[in-house]
Write a structure and sequence with these properties.
The chain is an alpha/beta fold and 404 residues long. It has helices spanning 11-23, 43-52, 55-61, 71-83, 99-110, 125-133, 150-159, 183-193, 255-269, 274-285, 289-314, 340-349, 379-403; strands at residues 29-30, 92-96, 116-121, 137-144, 147-148, 166-169, 199-203, 232-237, 249-253, 329-333, 352-353, 355-356, 369-373. It has two domains: 10-40 and 294-398, Aspartate Aminotransferase, domain 1 (Alpha-Beta Complex); 43-285, Type I PLP-dependent aspartate aminotransferase-like (Major domain) (Aspartate Aminotransferase, domain 2), CATH 3.40.640.10.
Length: 404
Amino acid sequence: MFAFSNAVNSMHSEDIKLLMKQASGKSMISFAGGMPNNDLFPVKQIDDIYNSLPEDIKKLCFQYGPTSGYPPLIKSLESHLEKKGLPVLSNKILITTGSLQAISIITQEFINEGDIILTENPSFVGALSVFETFGAEIHSIPIDKDGIDIKALKRKIVSLDRTPKFLYVTPNYHNPAGIIYTPERKKELLEVLSGTGIILLEDDAYSDLYFNENEKYLTKSMKSFGVKDVEIIYTGSFSKILGPGFRLGYMLSSPEIFEKAETVKQALDACTSNFMQILGNEFLVQHKLESYLKFLRSEYLERKNLLQKSLEKYMPKEVTWNEPKGGFYIWLKLPSHIKSTDIFKESVKNGVVFVTGRTFDPASKKDDRLRLAFSNMPKESIEKGVIILAKALKKVIKNAKVKS
């Protein structure tokens, strides 16, 4: 037996390994993959960008870069985020190897074993894995269709004997719940945190993927609200846009937090890939992003509509959900006595996989939900997949009635 550290015992890390395996299974109809479809990647645009680079910049692609990031990309991102209303002049950007690394860096920066982190319930499984790895004590607060439950959050903060280091939220097109916080809920959240000393970690991987231009205003970041007495760290990603393989994310924070974060990153990987940073920067400065995002929004809206229509047609009446306004996910609510793990066992036999609700519960217990990702689905497979899933659901519900 090896003397492994406590850090390798994350329950959610095992969930992630299984999830990645399910998401890439070729023979399955997979609603598991919370990632773009391979056919949507901007392959030609990236080919054109690389082929048009001057020789000296091509050589730079293969070199180490500054730990904080490729300077032209930082400048381009400042401009991009400023257009979104984010306070780039009073904050600093750190380029990271995906936004999950940003979450990991922030956790290392602030968390000692046993420190408290607040999360939503459900919550992004990748972040939960990081928090567990660093020995945090995780306390979760439920969410509804409008965002985090404010009364429950207040009760939780009052009940704790120590101040949580931070609250981690994904307010725009939530993973896995698919919801977007209302402007009112975002404002209420900031009011609750005001003066508590609890940092807000605002994870914003999906806000560019809204379906309706008239609802773009809903994606406004809380860091852009101009609140002075709540420290907010904002993270973003190119993974849901250019592609996860770029491993390109960033964090926007106060200079003091940035400085320590840069030190942590230096110890992790010295620098994020110059190759990917240069390509990402050119995508921004050559003004290719907005037209590509319009294409993606149209594609994901079409997939969402196909899934929504199929669910309405085939799902048993006991199953409910909120129709998302953007992003990648629909979050099904099952009857309280039905477990999504039982549904999974039945549906996988017939060639359909998804992600169980238990995966996104910080305590790995609550299992009356399931996540369907439409982003990675071939359009022609969506209806067939829902038919198989609905049959599995009906069978499990029927068997539960017989037993009771």
